[in-house]
Amino acid sequence: MAESKYPLQDPLCEQVVVGTLLSFPKEWAENADLLCPELFTSYQCQTIYTLSKGVVDRGEKADIISITAELAKTKTQGVSPTDILDLSNHVAVSSMRQQVMRLVELQRRRTVWAIGQRMIQAGTDESEPIEAIQSQAVDRLSNLFSSASAEIQSIAQVATDYTRNTIQANREGSRLQGAPTGFTEIDQRGGLQPSDLFVIAADSSQGKSSLALNMAVNVAKNGYPCSYYSMEMTADQLFARMLATETGLPSNILNTCPLTDEQLSRYTAASTSVASLPLYFDERSTSSLDAIISSIRTMAYRNHVKVAVVDYLQILNVNMKNVNKEQQMADAARRFKNLAKELNVCIILLSQLNRDRDNPQPSMARLRDSGQIAEAADVVLLIYRPEVYGSRYKYPDELSKVSTSGTAMLHVCKGRNIGTFRFIVGFNAPLTMFHELEQLPQADRQASDDNMPF
Q1: Largest CA distance in the chain
Q2: From the DSSP assignment, how many helices (H) and strands (E) are in the chain?
Q3: 91 FRET partner, CA 20 to 30 A, in 111, 276, 415, 436?
Q4: Residue 445 has what pLDDT?
Q5: What is the pLDDT of the chain when averaged over all its residues?
Q6: Alpha-carbon span 279 to 444, nearest angstrom
Q7: Cβ(48)–Cβ(18) below 8 Å
């Protein structure tokens, strides 16, 4: 970009900063957290800064002599030794930090100006999805105040933080756990951890949405704000499902039948309780991947959301041209993981499995459209309800004697920080609710049913 295109310049300030760095090399360490080439709009200042930075990065002293030698060695055009000497005469050690902060402020304002220009241009180009334009603008604005040095930690600092936040906190019983799911086997291993991508996968009609909604409600009940994005159900339908689990009244009764006085009383109490939860729906942002990512970022900043549920991956509009479905799903999963890490939130991502007529028991290898979904995920949980396929199907191995009627197996087949395990829970089909069992029901050996759903 030519200099004439830059608004908000301060040439004298740029000269002072570069000149001070040339004359007082110690100022590199004092201001390393803010310095970068983008601070300088002058070609001479930016070039000399870049040459100096190269010398410093090699562990050498950056002064007039070494930078002049670097200039000759690199044969850089448009800058002369005289320019280096002239800049060294502009020095302001006592106000160096303020001068650098001045350039940082101008650079941030130029970024905002560039984003505005980009949006003006894109606003008249109907070939580009508006969601992509918005997402790009939000991404750039959200990184406006990031500092490269803020992400750099010494091993000594990591060790101190780990000792304080983990070892000591564990001994004192005060370590902050992740958001609770309501299932002991998961929660005792830490629950839904910040920065994790938690994938729930299953065949169709196994209860992915029900499990995710059950978890979302439990998360919100424990004071963790949660957002839910469904591409298949409206907020009203999701609310009806939540009310069904809270009242014990199936959603078809709530939606279609006049309630008795007793049922109405149960509904009123449950509705008041659920309405107070920090649970959010953004139906306008379910049209595309970019829109959902933008909404999650906004929810995290505005509503302090700690868990976000996306239901589900395979029907997302990814807005990627000339790539196959597998690449689209892989890119979407990776973007959700990066977003979870950036915002320090847990993202629950629902995914379909490819059907296997010979063996319906789910496996991670059957994740539909992309094996890279599992690679991006921190946790992959599979749902298996054998009763959907007929009573000839049982649970595997040591769980084979457990009744499949009204139950489900939750199999954590990948757990980056929690290991792998599987356990049985109850499933109330009329209420679409997963729940813990006090004891495991045993299978009836006399039962037989060879009917298949395929």
Answers
A1: 97
A2: 17, 9
A3: 111
A4: 58
A5: 84
A6: 41
A7: yes
Phi/psi of residue 223, each to 5°? 90, 10
Q: What single letter denotes the amino acid at residue 170?
A: N
Please identify which residue in the block is written with the tokens 């603008």. Answer: 137
What DSSP letter does each residue of 366-419 carry, written as one string?
GBTT-THHHHH-SEEEEEE-GGGT-TT----GGGTTB--TTEEEEEEEEETTT-
Q: Which residues pair with 353 in a beta bridge?
A: 367
Residues forming beta bridges with residue 383, ordered by sequence position: 410
Report the distance separating Cα 192 and Cα 379, nearest Å: 9
Question: Sheet containing 279-281: which strands, arranged edge to edge?
Answer: 279-281, 226-230, 307-311, 346-352, 197-202, 379-384, 407-415, 421-428, 433-435
Give dist(CA 361, CA 367) in Å, integer: 13
| Cα distance between residue 361 and residue 351, in whole Å | 15
pLDDT, tens digit (0-9, with 9 covering 90-100), for 172-223:
766 557 899 999 999 988 899 999 999 999 888 888 999 999 999 999 999 9
- Two tokens, residue 285: 């942002």
Q: Is 214 helix (H, G, I), strand (E, B) or coil?
A: helix
Cα 272 from Cα 362, distance rounded (Å): 38
241 vs 274: CA distance, rounded Å: 11
Q: How many CB atoms are located within 10 Å of the residue 373 CB?
A: 27
Q: Do you know the residue count of the chain?
A: 454
Contacts of 240 (CB under 8 A, 6+ apart): 251, 254, 255
User: Mapping DSSP to helix (H, G, I), strand (E, B) and coil, where does residue 240 land?
Assistant: helix
What is the distance between the alpha carbons of residues 339 and 333, in angstroms, rounded to a whole number? 10
DSSP state of 285: G
CA separation for the pair 38, 117 (Å, rounded): 18
